Amino acid sequence: MESFEEEEELSNSDEQVQHFEIIVDKGQGLTRLDKFLAEKIPNASRNKVQQGIEDAVIKVNGQKVKANYKIKPNDVISYWIVDSHRDMEVEPEPIPLDIIYEDNDLLVVNKPAGMVVHPAHGNWKGTLVNALAYYFGQLPEMPGNTGRPGLVHRIDKDTSGLLVIAKSEKAMTKLAAQFFHHNIKRSYMALVWGEPKEDHGTIDVPIGRSFKNRKVMDAFPDGDYGKHAVTHYTVIQRLRYVSLVECRLETGRTHQIRAHMKYLGHPLFNDAVYGGDKIRKGTQFSKYKAFVHNCFSMLPRQALHAKSLGFVHPTTQENLFFEKEMPEDMSQVVEKWRKYVKEID
Asked: Is there a common fold for 99-180 and 185-344?
């Protein structure tokens, strides 16, 4: 199995360049480079790969090679993907914000499910950053963070909950440092399939991009790939076929809770990316199936909410802590499961 590394994006007003590496597996047989990469790079035809090799944006062991080069075990293949897009100046939009707290340095917002945090390919409008640009006019950016003013962290489109936004460079730098050193206190409420064996637990398993689908994160328990990731969880309520769980992040990797809970054998309820949008536990009765699908309709997203957020104020050094209860769609489905369990007990 090849290992992949994704490096920091390099951004300017015209394009984003992403650098990737593939380290060829020790058991890999001799294969043409163009054929090998056409199977590994998403949406890449063999002709595109051959052009990339010719243009030297694809190299092997740091050297330019030909398309018919035969890859060997332990070869390091480097390639760059250029994502051309619009000018990264964010278009302000009068989108309502649910502001929980605000002062001269920062604000804390409650992001609704379905809202993308920042503009990107396919989502240039309607994002939280578009709303912030309208509300403030100008927010700070950090190097490598072009097009994402004020952001020091993010949550997935279909995850609801709390985010802190920096209003000054000083605030952004100090808040970013707290995230980097894992000093931020964050907890999430998740409805998951099944009942975890223990009431409390810690998942300390590296997370990295899947070798099969780079949009999905996988857990790598052998520790041979991925980034250090730690999630602490507490079972709040057991509901026969699902459980309400509180997850506390020690690290903040992409899709961390979603990938970790899947690894534990308890994917998030209605999480289409990680297999939670199918009936994972329960009976075969048609009435039960109808009940679950009705819940899916009420909550058309993964059942995950960023409930609490705690950090040190970048100027006053005061410890701040905020909480926001689950939104209506998620709380209604949890209550529906509670009633169902009472009826069958």
From this structure: yes
Which residue of the set 55, 87, 98, 156 is catalytic? Answer: 156
* Domain ranges, ordered by start, for the chain: 3-84, 99-180, 185-344
Phi and psi dihedrals of 275, rounded to 5? 85, 10
Tens of each residue's pLDDT in the chain, 345 residues: 333 333 222 233 233 446 778 888 888 888 899 988 888 876 677 888 888 788 777 889 988 899 999 999 989 998 876 544 444 577 889 999 999 999 999 999 999 999 998 777 666 788 998 999 888 876 665 554 555 667 888 899 999 999 999 988 888 888 988 888 889 999 999 999 999 999 999 999 999 998 888 789 999 999 888 999 999 999 999 999 999 999 999 998 999 999 999 999 999 999 999 999 999 999 989 999 999 999 999 999 999 999 999 999 999 999 999 999 999 999 999 999 999 999 887
Please tell me the pTM assigned to this model.
0.73
Angle among Cα 53, 58, 64 to the nearest 5 degrees reads 70
Q: With b meaning 16 or more CB within 10 Å and e meaning fewer, what string describes 126-148?
A: ebbbbbbbebeeebbbbeebbbb
Whether 34 is catalytic is no
Residue 105: HSE in the Cβ half-sphere, 13 Å Cα cutoff: 14
Please provide the CATH number assigned to the domain covering 185-344: 3.30.2350.10
Looking at 3.30.300.30, 3.90.170.10, 3.40.630.10, 3.30.2350.10, the CATH number of the domain 99-180 comes to 3.30.2350.10
Question: Could you tell me which residues come within 8 angstroms of residue 298 by beta carbon, excluding any fewer than 6 positions away?
Answer: 329, 332, 333, 336
3-84, superfamily in CATH? Answer: RNA-binding S4 domain (3.10.290.10)
Q: Strand locations in 51-168, DSSP E?
A: 58-60, 70-71, 76-84, 99-102, 106-111, 160-166
